[in-house]
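Changelog-adjacent note: as of this version, every example in the card shows the full chain rather than a window. The one below runs 94 residues end to end.
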Amino acid sequence: MICIAAHAQTQCPGYVETDAGSAFDIASIIRDTGSPQSALEKLRGAVARVNAGGGCAIFRDRLACEETLTLANKAIVALQACASSSMPKGAAHG
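Full-length structure tokens:
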């Protein structure tokens, strides 16, 4: 089982980083959620909740929020790539 987890993690980057130096630990969210696809769904849901609630304009520190959303969107792009590459052929993408 440890070999399977290590193999799955090699398909996805361990983390992503913004130009400002903020980092997002992709390996941890995959480990916590169980798969790249589950991590992708969790991140998409979090970003959607922020956007549905008025976006970064509702936060006191708008710039920090924008940096966080930039980072989340970079993580989403990375997870989309590795989630689709780790799915078996013919599997439905959600």
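Structural remarks: Helices lie at 2-11, 26-33, 36-52, 62-86.
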